[in-house]
Specification:
By secondary structure, this protein is of the alpha/beta class. Helix content is 43%, strand content 15%. It has 13 helices and 11 strands. Strands 3-2-1-4-9-6-10 form a 7-stranded mixed beta sheet, sandwiched between helices.
């Protein structure tokens, strides 16, 4: 199976961090070619860090977030028909903590047309866009190519989620392309565990003044697990119970968990994972 990856990158300091290099190294194991698209003006020394792993480096204007980096990457593929699989992913995660090859084998053996690591029913069903995989039939479909060809530019996060992330999944499923996520949409989580998580996030919001409003809103509404952003609210549970391979960098930015707790979780599931975290 011939696989091409488009990796979306942004760093405010115009750097390529160690965790990104590690991620690219692991992606190289499951792919034949990686196109690296950055919205940061990377110097030659920074670009040299990833030359062993990527086939092409593209620097573009910082508009349209990751989806327009994905669009730029797709437009720079000479012939999509030469590939059996397309992976879209970005630098919003630390990892992988588990083998991407094993995960790919598991998902590719299912009767599905495209898949992601996690999914959500918030607003409408969609695969979360930090890691998406499309098989040959899907990536050559008119509805898939039309989505990218006519992709508008949004700056508001809600518009981006609805018109990029949700729209892509909904458009493909409406055209009878079947989707699935590696971490199940509906999780069976003990009520006691969920209550503890809700309480801890409320404490962080009101006493420590960490976590942002959107995270708190999801907690206060006691949404179903299928509607929660599992990568944030249930991050440790899905790593331990479902071998979620990534930790979102927002876990640090929003102070969802302490660095020591994060490292304890990682040590339990993969003692050999030893990267410095950029947001400690």
């Amino acid at each position: 199976m011939k696989t091409i990856v488009i990796f979306a990158h942004y760093n405010p300091d115009n750097k390529i961090k160690d965790y990104v290099i590690y991620y690219l190294e692991q992606l190289k194991v499951i792919s034949d070619e990686i196109i690296f698209v950055s919205t940061s003006p990377l110097g030659n020394q920074e670009q040299k860090k990833i030359v062993p792993f990527v086939a092409k480096i593209i620097i573009r204007k910082n508009i349209g977030y990751d989806f327009h980096s994905y669009k730029t990457g797709i437009e720079n593929i000479k012939d999509l028909a030469n590939y059996d699989q397309l992976i879209l992913c970005n630098d919003s995660c630390y990892g992988p903590l588990f083998s991407l090859k094993d995960i790919s084998i598991q998902m590719n053996n299912q009767k599905i047309d495209f898949w992601g690591i996690t999914s959500s029913n918030l607003l409408k069903f969609h695969l979360q866009s930090y890691f998406l995989v499309f098989n040959k039939q899907t990536l050559l479909a008119n509805c898939f190519m039309d989505f990218w060809k006519n992709l508008p530019i949004y700056q508001n996060r809600k518009d981006i989620v609805y018109n990029y992330e949700i729209e892509l999944t909904q458009r493909l499923t409406a055209n009878n392309y079947h989707a699935a996520s590696y971490v199940p949409l509906d999780l069976k989580i003990p009520l006691f565990w969920l209550m503890n998580r809700h309480i801890s996030l409320l404490i962080k919001r009101y006493l420590i003044h960490s976590t942002n409003y959107s995270t708190l809103g999801n907690v206060l509404k006691f949404r179903r697990c299928s509607e929660l952003d599992k990568t944030i609210i249930l991050w440790d549970y899905i790593i331990q119970k479902y071998k979620m391979p990534f930790i979102k960098t927002n876990i640090f930015r929003r102070k969802i968990a302490s660095p020591s707790h994060i490292k304890d979780i990682i040590k339990q599931v993969n003692p050999n994972f030893n990267l410095n975290f950029d947001h400690e």
